[in-house]
Amino acid sequence: MRWFWIDRFTELVSGETATAIKTISLSEEHLHDHFSGIPTMPNSLILEGMAQTAGMLVSQYNAFKERVILAKVPRLVFHCRGVPGDTLTYHAQLEAIEESGARAITTSHIGDRLQAEAEILFAHIDRETAHRPLFAGEDFGDLLRSLRIFEVGRNPDGSKLSYPEHLLSQASP
Amino acid sequence: MPSKEEVFEKVREALVDALGVDDDEVTPKATLVGDLGAESIDFLDIVFRLEKSFDIKIPRGELFPEDILTNTDYVTDGKINAEGLTELKKRMPFADLSKFEENPVVQEFATSLTVQDMCNYVESKV
To answer: What own/partner pairs with CB < 8 Å and gap ≥ 24 does A158-165 have?
Structure first.
């Protein structure tokens, strides 16, 4: 099982903003029980998608060296449901980033319609466990590539993001 | 330069937003942890809000000196020793540590920080 709640990034400006999309498909198993006859994307997974969008943006700021975890959601509002066939566009705006963590404002849109919004706090994982990878046994570089982060990612000056060197040794052949 | 009242108002707003408490619960003597229910992650939230509200930078450890509280030179049997207390007072001139001094148990440190201590800290930075 893979815990991807975003399908790909469409925009990323290092340290500033990121946009990712999630397309809801009727073939997703959990929709058959949530709810029976009224397939509805669970709001908790929409929050997870917004958090993954913002969290990747936070992690990328330190070239994916700092492990970032979702720590607090001070504000979270859902305006309407997400249903099969909808494409949710998640947008994250980085408000603050420091050694201890980061703060982001995120939104979810269906077309032009605001579907959800959240204020999210992330914590940088403490030094004691920082040397252990969060995603054990997984090729993290491949994960980032499938999300198209290095295709769309840019620095604020417009230059392309460079692939982090410390991930090169993990690259698939 | 904001007045003491303005500082208090903004600190109160930050605490109400971060901790979900009512305006009237935030009194100068209220302790962040004991009275207002703040947990460790809430301190990160409070720091971000204060930084934005007052346009200041709050370096890690300046408001909450974890390095002193975990330093074996300053801690004996779970209590801050005399050397540690001197260091704490130097690092936290904005805090009223008199109650903590009576029984300086490290675990209790977080519970002694009050709203007034936070206001004093912010005033020293703006």
So the answer is: A161/A12, A161/A14, A161/A60, A164/A63, A164/A64, A164/A65
